[in-house]
Amino acid sequence: MKKALFLFLGIFCGLYANSLQEAIEKAAPYDTLKLSAGSYRGNIVITKPLTIIGNSSVIVGENKGSVITIKSDHVILENLTIQNSGQQKTSLDSGVKLLKSSYIQIKGCNFEDVLYGINIELSHHIQIKNNTIRSIDSLSLPQKGNGIKIWYSHHIFLSDNKTLHVKNNAISFSHHITLKNNHFKNTMFALYFENSKNISVERNIFQYNSSAIVSMGTYDLKIIKNDILSSTGAAGIGIVLGNGRKIMINGNRIRYNAKAFYIDSQFKEQGMQRFITKNEIAYNKEAFHFHQAIKNNTIKYNNIYGNISDVVKDTPNYLTANNSVKYNYWDQYGGFDKDGDGVGDMPYKVYQYSDKLWHFNNKIKFFFASPALSIINFLSKIAPFVPPNLLLEDEKPYMNLIKF
């Protein structure tokens, strides 16, 4: 039977003697330690099933190593402030480090001045809920660690967390990961997926990140009903898709980015891979930025408006194939609807005219909308010296904004 062990340690006792580690060692498996308000010395190691619940309780690390290391299954950490890890990336100094552990819950905790927030290695069935994670304030963003790092770990559920001023949140070689109702702000890559599968990203908020979501080699990725806003810098990107398969992007609001989408389609890629539907893609510099080929994309029922460029391709090799693009609203479409069915009479075709100059050389975009470039673009359309490249064609563009 589980027991409850009440640990009432004052602030002085916690600071000057490692009473928390001693209590952990004396506790029986599945005991509950309830901490009173105060500070407790960190760099603790948990090697048995245990629950630790705080009440204005601060676990203070030694500015080296990890503040809490878990090497057991069935551990719960709740309502703790965890601070002052080391700064060594080689040892992945963390607020909480999980090593080959399963059925772990970390909820309601506040991480401050930790290099890595929660580092999950070779661990499974983990719940991370309602935590706030902030890296070491004195470090510049490239020097910080990840807020949440998941490596070779499966069946992870993350909800209602905030990660602020961390470098990335990285998920590598892991599967069955759910991220829901989280807030990612002021990072480099808010979410970075690498060679992972069965990923669900739903109803999260992304703000002021260099890139919101970066997916490399991910299989079965669902990005649903997120707010992806205000990626920072001249190259700030909402969603980066590279080398993945079976990717569904539905119902998101993607605004105020340099690039809403950056898609790297491989020439050898086979079959429909990306399904982009019912999104609001608005007020970005570029709506869709393609690298190499434009192929294997389903793009339907999106509202695409207020962007400087709808489609950009940055490599000279020309290939557009196997796309299903229809029933989108494009504010740059200039066609008519004579029969009044709400669908344009002519397809919306995005060609590459003089803009191919700055598609391949970003420095030229400084002259975007200048009289010289406008004249070149106009002449290219009415009397092209060489045939323009057709980048993308919407067979049946909507005339008005779509109501979802």
Task: Give structural notes.
It is a single chain. The protein is mainly beta. The chain folds into two domains: 1-187, 3 Solenoid (Pectate Lyase C-like), CATH 2.160.20; 192-353 and 388-404. The chain is 8% helix and 48% strand. It has four helices and 41 strands. The chain has a 25-stranded parallel β-sheet that branches. It has a twelve-stranded parallel β-sheet with strand order 4-6-8-11-14-17-20-23-26-29-32-36. The longest helix is centred in the last third of the chain and has 12 residues, at 371-382. The protein is elongated and about 85 Å long. The model is unreliable at 6-17 (pLDDT under 50).
Spell out the key features of this protein.
single chain, 404 residues, mainly beta, Pectate Lyase C-like, 2 domains, 25-stranded parallel sheet, twelve-stranded parallel sheet, 41 strands, 8% helix
